[in-house]
User: What shape does this take?
Amino acid sequence: MGRLYTRSGDSGSTTCFFAGKPLRVPKSHPVVEALGSIDEAVSFIGLARSFLPGGDVYGEVVEVLRWLQRLLFNIGFSLSTGEARVSEGDVRRMEELIDRYYGEPLRRFILPSGPPYIAGLHVARAVLRRAERKLVAAMGEGFSVDPVVLKAVNRASDLLFAIAISLARAEGVLEEV
Assistant: This one.
């Protein structure tokens, strides 16, 4: 990597790959919005991790969250370059983790709350839902989105919800329904 700045986006556009070919698009394009939302979610996960207390239970969560941050980077890479970096195996792993952290059907809506690390995970979850909506909007404009990427973004937000609820329950934080 060269310099941190390239100056190529100073005019309000950036390069994305459309049908395997580079294409200049405005920074307001839904794919660019989705990439920004994914980056935002990665940052909120990092913020939540920074608030996690020590201990064995949290050590596993930290590793899962670190893995998820890397996966989200790979999703961003896939979207911005057209090169597949996400697999059905990643989706399956998230589904297994969701079942482990929240192994029951959702019966009611739960208000996001709790200590900063739990609330941060809820914010990251909501930001990923926005990324998913932007990807669907991009698809509506003809942008090709790998179906595995769309599934992975959806499962990532589910996983963050499952982890947040699991941590809240472990901490004895009362659920507000």
Q: What stands out?
A: The longest strand covers residues 13-18.
